[in-house]
Amino acid sequence: MTALAEDLAGKLGDRQAGSSVDPADGALVVNVVNDQDAQTVQSAGARARKVRHTTGDLQRISTELGQGGLPRGSSWGVDPQADAVVVELPVGTAFTPGRDYGDAVVVRQAAGPARALATDLYGGLTINRGRSGEPLWKALNGIHLVTG
User: Fold this and answer.
1) Which end of the chain is more exposed for a tag (fewer CB within 10 A), N or C?
2) Alpha-carbon span 66 to 44, nearest angstrom
3) Torsions phi, psi of 80, nearest 5?
4) What is the pLDDT of residues 113-147, one digit of tens each?
5) What single DSSP character describes residue 141?
6) How far is the CA of 98 from the CAs of 78, 86, 88, in angstroms?
7) What's the pTM value of the predicted model, to 2 decimals?
8) CA distance 115 to 49
9) Over the stretch 11-65, which tens digit does the pLDDT of each residue have?
10) Are 91 and 109 in contact (CB under 8 A)?
11) How far is the C-alpha of 47 from the C-alpha of 40, rounded, in Å?
């Protein structure tokens, strides 16, 4: 499935808008912005989902947001399932983007206060991300140490 996702991303280039696996049936879902690309995706054996924003657009917005103005402790990133840059704010903070990105930016409040992870972070730590009713994303943390 990864090979198919990479192949389609290569064919579609800037016109694709990310991909994910549907947890209900395991199908590869590729976000596209036009009907012609939807047909390309379907012909390759994946499911096409029409969205408004390309990955390039969302990455540009993510970079702009990361250049300042977000409250300390915020996190943000491109979420292909939301077709948006999702900004998560620490409890008790507020943020309004300096320009109107419309539905390309979703601002959410974190479930709890921000905390430093330096003392809680170790190699192999599983990092879970997801909310009720949404797919759970997992990653493993790797740490490389160099001794002098």
Assistant:
1) C
2) 35
3) -60, -30
4) 666 655 565 555 556 555 545 555 556 555 555 55
5) -
6) 18, 15, 16
7) 0.70
8) 36
9) 998 888 888 888 889 999 999 999 999 999 999 999 999 999 988 899 899 999 9
10) yes
11) 10
